[in-house]
Amino acid sequence: MTGMTSLWIGGAPLLLASTSRTRRALLESAGIPIETQSPGIDERAVEAAAMDLPPLDLARRLASEKSLAVSRAHPERIVLGADQVLDCGDKVFHKPVDRAAARRQLQALSGRTHRLHSAGALAKGGEIVAGFAVIAHLTMRALDDDAINLYLDLAGPEVLNSVGVYHYEGLGVHLFERVEGDHSTILGLPLLPLVAALRRLGYLAF
Predict the structure, then answer these.
(1) What are the CA-CA distances from residue 154 to residues 118, 138, 146, 148 (Å)?
(2) What is the pLDDT of residues 109-150, one digit of tens each?
(3) Which of 3.20.20.150, 2.40.50.140, 3.20.190.10, 3.90.950.10 is the CATH number of 14-200?
(4) Is the pLDDT of residue 29 over 90?
(5) What class of enzyme is it (predicted)?
(6) In the annotation, is 83 catalytic?
(7) Which residues contact 130 (CB under 8 A, 6 or more apart)?
(8) From the candidates 42, 52, 57, 83, which is the catalytic residue?
């Protein structure tokens, strides 16, 4: 290991089957070189076909479908797919389509504890070679309509890209009173099981 200048020893960078800036930033902060490519899958169609799966398994399925879609096009590369599923009570929530849907979702989560199921899947040669999934529990403050509207005004349309209608790494932190779970899990990519899998597969120097 003497003389090494890089943690990554896997040759070509990790190929992230996503265009998420948050996931990219998480990987780069961990010293993992990445390239990105959109998986081009219909997530709603995958969910519809797997509607009987519990939320954690649905997150695994979505992550796997993303990584496999990109891996088939780049079989020589190690590909990472990741996804999140949010459930509260007996309801699974999806990314809101507009501000009105975002408001309804925040009203439904207000004052309650919900679960974020974050999963990742590594693929190579069109096959899954490692997978992991972690759950975080988040308790949202009781929010009145004025607070919800102000938050949506301040946060802007980017919150529509979040399954929970919040960017916890930004203004979304103000919505919560208690959080149980690793920070990277909440952001949609559990880093500890990911780096453990990459280390086991021989892509990291230590």
Answers:
(1) 26, 21, 12, 10
(2) 999 999 999 999 999 999 999 999 999 999 999 999 999 999
(3) 3.90.950.10
(4) yes
(5) hydrolase
(6) yes
(7) 121, 122, 197, 200, 201
(8) 83
